[in-house]
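User: I'll paste a sequence; please echo it back and then give the predicted structure.

Assistant: Echoing your sequence first, then the prediction.
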Amino acid sequence: MNTPLQSGAGEVQSSDMEVKIRGLMMDPVTNMPIVVLKDVQSDTLVPIWVGIFEANAIALEIEKTATPRPMTHDLLANLIRTLDGEVRRVVITELRDDVYYALIWMERSGELISLDARPSDALALALRTDCPIFLSEQVLRTTRVANAGLENYSTEELRRWLENLNDEDLGRYKM
């Protein structure tokens, strides 16, 4: 569903944190892929669990792997450009019932449009369109609480584990 915006809507909130994709890894507890997001202004790391196919789409772009035909997110980026649109930013807006939610903010003909999206799809599109990625304050608060319940890991242990990973651990994602 798309939602045309009123004047002033869709602006980045001062409480939103801009992040970059630091890398992809497998969760040793659940064997699910994790996208590791890093605050651009600090060493804060935020893990976002995604599906295997979505992680593959992100990994292909991180590694700049050429495919013989456009993948779904390549098609979306090409479609947006062909229709004279531009992806302005991606915001992971909410974590509710262990499900993340995101919005893709696009501009076309001077009109801002928000599109509801899975965060993994929004992240894959953000990589392909080179737009900024943000986490809302609500996600930051909720993620901290959700991480505290992970089996075998306290919030502090998970943070240390993620922070101590080196570029080799995060640089290549194997499917």
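The beta strands are 2-4, 17-26, 33-39, 45-49, 85-96, 99-108, 111-117, 133-135. Confidence is low (pLDDT under 50) at residues 1-8, 169-175.
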